[in-house]
């Protein structure tokens, strides 16, 4: 497997599991309180580590108790190299307070006010030595842009988790090869009338766009290449089902892969926190395999990894191991 760099944010999650979401002024007892590492880059890195991918993690934390806990969690992971983690004594490590509603199977995140960015002058070009894939989580976007430019010079492939609107993204997006975004981003940031419209917006510069849709699965959109088209490999209708269609828009043909969410019983869903990050970990794993994975295999595998995550509290407790 390849050596990759995961760039972005990490925090400490405080997860309260409750029978129902609290009403205004209500006092509510939690079923459980879990403290664990979180943050998009952190969660995706941990997922990849469990899938036996060796990686380096570039995040920024404070020299405090939360930072110590975050760092310790990464050091306990077999495949995460923590040598690039920035520790700044003048900042407070970020934290997230998460309410997991067992009644509606939803989670609500409350982020701490501090949002320390990785700065451009903290990027050492040597961090890309022996790296051939970078994943960005849309945090510290000015520094990410600088890193993506260096990656472009070295022909390093890049993926981007496009979760919300941030500065410098318009400059960063054209530099990445793969974009994974959400239905919410399409509707509320792009203001597009359809998911396909959002995907086509980004396909001018990247190889494919994946848009996740929660319990409704995901879609992958790419420009039609008849030489690379393969038959779908749904096996015995088990797990996620993938279908494809070709659409003709503005004199171009696009191939759309529709993937259902991997089936799971409602009572088995413990916590949705980090399921999107787990899905992204599955996608990156498939992109890094030595043999070419068909698009449907890629989507089905990522859907399975995301389903596994749903069975445990926090972003990482139920992620599967491949070693």
UniProtKB/TrEMBL annotation:
Belongs to the carbohydrate kinase PfkB family. GO terms for biological process: phosphate-containing compound metabolic process. InterPro entries: Carboh/pur_kinase_PfkB_CS (IPR002173), Ketohexokinase-related (IPR052562), PfkB_dom (IPR011611), Ribo/fructo_kinase (IPR002139), Ribokinase-like (IPR029056). The keyword Transferase applies. Pfam families: PfkB (PF00294). It comes from Rotaria sordida. Keywords: Kinase, Transferase. It comes from the Eukaryota. This is Carbohydrate kinase PfkB domain-containing protein. Residues 1-225, 264-320 form the Carbohydrate kinase PfkB domain. One of its GO terms (molecular function) is kinase activity.
């Amino acid at each position: 497997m390849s050596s990759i760099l995961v760039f972005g944010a990490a925090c400490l999650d405080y997860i309260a599991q409750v029978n129902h979401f609290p009403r205004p002024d209500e006092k509510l007892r939690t079923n459980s309180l879990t403290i664990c590492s979180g943050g998009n880059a952190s969660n995706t890195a941990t997922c990849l580590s469990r899938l036996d991918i060796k990686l380096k993690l570039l995040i920024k934390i404070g020299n405090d108790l939360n930072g110590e806990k975050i760092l310790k969690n990464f050091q306990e992971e077999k495949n995460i190299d923590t040598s690039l983690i920035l520790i700044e004594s003048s900042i407070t490590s970020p934290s997230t307070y998460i309410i997991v509603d067992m009644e509606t199977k939803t989670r609500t995140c409350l982020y701490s006010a501090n949002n320390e960015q990785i700065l451009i002058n903290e990027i050492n070009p040597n961090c890309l030595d022996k790296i051939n894939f970078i994943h960005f989580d849309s945090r510290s976007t000015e520094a990410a842009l600088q890193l993506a430019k260096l990656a472009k010079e070295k022909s390093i492939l890049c993926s981007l988790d496009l979760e919300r609107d941030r500065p410098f993204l318009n400059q960063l997006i054209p530099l990445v090869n793969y974009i994974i975004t959400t239905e919410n981003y399409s509707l509320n940031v792009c203001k597009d009338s359809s998911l396909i419209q959002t995907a086509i917006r980004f396909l001018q510069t990247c190889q494919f766009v994946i848009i996740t849709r929660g319990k409704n699965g995901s879609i992958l959109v790419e420009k039609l290449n008849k030489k690379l088209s393969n038959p779908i490999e749904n096996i015995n209708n088990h797990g996620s089902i993938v279908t494809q269609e070709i659409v003709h828009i503005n004199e171009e043909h696009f191939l759309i892969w529709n993937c259902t969410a991997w089936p799971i019983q409602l009572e088995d869903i413990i916590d949705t926190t980090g399921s999107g990050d787990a899905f992204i970990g599955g996608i990156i794993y498939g992109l890094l395999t030595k043999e070419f994975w068909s698009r449907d295999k890629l989507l089905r595998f990522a859907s399975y990894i995301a389903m596994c995550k749903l069975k445990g509290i926090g972003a990482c407790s139920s992620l599967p191991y491949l070693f």
